[in-house]
Amino acid sequence: MAERIRLVEVGPRDGLQNEARAVPAATKIRLIEDLVEAGHSTVEATSFVSPKWIPQLADAAEVYASLRRKPGVAYPVLVPNLQGLQRALEVGVSEVAIFGAASEAFSQRNINAGIDESIERFKPVMEHALTNGIKVRGYVSTVLGCPYQGEVPLRDVVRVARALHELGCYEISLGDTIGIGTARSAREMLQAVAAVIPMAQLAVHFHDTRGQALANVFACVEAGVRVVDASVAGLGGCPYAEGASGNVASEDVVYMLHGMGFETGIDLGRLVAVGRWISTELERRNGARLGLAWKG
Catalytic site residue 238? Predict the structure, then answer.
């Protein structure tokens, strides 16, 4: 039996949050449900952030409450603080994610707090979530470089990842926010973190700004990671990182993984159809190479 790799689909949250034009709640709901029907077992649904900061996700409660949630599928949401967590709990969320940075400069620009202060802020969120039986995933951004400070020392990546793990995050996603990494640097970063956190509790999250994302995923899978974040049709990017437009496309990742002999549980043809549909809905170019090439 082939070994399995779990994809965490981040399109509905990380992918849509920076769309300039308002996306209707009905479109978001259909996107999530169609991704699940294509075989995804984890779909990041939305983010309970302040509508002032991300107006696109002001309908988080409506979207989550309206979903036809399928048994056995995880629908995590991002929460920045206790207020966001409380809003998420009110609509029955069972898994959340918190977001930290390995770059001091990025942390200051992003949340107006340094790394140490950001970790302190997470403590009450973690305590409240775990007390209520909520699973928490941790994101570490700028693991391979920062738009403000440039190089990010590996020791800082390890420090932040370990801090989130020690707080109780069941999984840590390591994100190349500006898409600056290459296969070698991605593998070395993953291995450094895996020296202090079990590989089974790590995930990778790559942006394709410089066309390196698939190579980075390949290198990290070869190094042992078995959870990969990706976004249908390559939707997304970082609002704080100029030029960082587009996560690695789920379609392209699944095609590569299947070609490597791994199982994902995802129907590639159905996933391609979802990517083509949402690209049409958003009136944007399909960021998945397979979305353009697929003839199945």
Answer: yes
